[in-house]
Amino acid sequence: MSTIVIDRITVRENTLECEIRPSADVARFFSGETFVTSYDRSIEDVPEGILAIPVLANVCPVAWANGADVYVDEVDASFARALEDVKASLLGMYDFLEGGTLYARRTIEPKPAAESIDGAESESALLFTGGVDSTCSYVRHRDEEPALVSIRGWTITPDRADDRKWDDLRNRVESFADERGLETAFVESNVLSALDHPMLLAHYKRHVDGAWYSSVGHGLGLLGLCAPMAYARGIGDLYVAATHWDGIDLEWGSRPDIDDNVRWSGTRCHHDAYELTRQERLDAIADYVESDAPSLELQTCNVRMDGNCGECEKCYRTAVGLRLSGLEPSRHGYAFVDRDYDEIRSALEGGEWVLGQDERHMWADIRDRVRETEPSSERERAFFEWLVAVDLDELVADARPPLSHRILRAGARNTPTRVYNGAYPTVKAVKMGLDRIRSVR
User: Which superkingdom is the protein from (predicted)?
Assistant: First the structure.
């Protein structure tokens, strides 16, 4: 029988550690590292059943993919029920998931913590990066003065190479919060190195449109990482901004039927702004810029965190969206000029960006707005006419990952665990090198 045991949960001031002990048949999906998550305030008074949530939230989807049972000493009763609801949603989404059972020696229902922040109880919090989605959610909930929560462990890894990116993100979020009198919370975790994410990708990439964490794990996983912090701060509502919107039925790890089910004692989670398309979220931001924040800058780039590169697909897509919402991109973080429309068309037609159905829907949303918009220049007119006429499905089909990546994944899937573990550093280095080469292009 496949099993995963969560063992020896310990806390030292603001740092949580625990061991993950998988049975041999699922061991390849775990690196052997101790699971570690750190917060910016003490969590020593948080009950063990809440402390188990971060690791359970990230391990359970791996268990469900393998039909494995998970064992833990203590768990919050509300979260245990939440896991059943999230499992049902994920199993309904993916045929390759098998399910599994959580076994706990004790379930607890602790009273919510009543700790206050600087003398004022924090009633809500928002996962925040400063991008379109999270900024729109802040605009929608700004009357609540939510604490802004940023997490290191997914797009910014715990590796020293990402220290600068994390510092840049923290500085930007702190500046945004200070200008508005908001609290911040920063969470750091080695979740994607405690899990063997390259092996998960190798085994399951063929079943999903994105990577393992984006397609399966990140809604439950990121919210779960926040549980000890939320309990310690007395946060009742935790918002995560929607990526997609109503009418897009994509297999994705953060959706209303996942995030809205996540809960633990004292806290409920909310998938926010799902009723708005990305362009409508930019409209909401544009209204906020006009009324309250004329110098607001967005940060959407995945290449850098100290500003936007202005040349990647996401930067170009956001800049076009800003123009369609009546904002000048150069005033809000994007050095965009009319001739960049030619660069976007060339990159899309040439397959220079690896696109999925996610991006296809984003560009379709832009195209819908283009049909209602009078272009302001000849270059813009030419791009709008091309976008209205082009087959977006063909653009996505032409933008496949390179063959070298597919070969690495296939090799990892079919390599015995002991052999793979010995070769893993080399495989990872090769893959990172290929990624760097592609990003330079």
Answer: Archaea
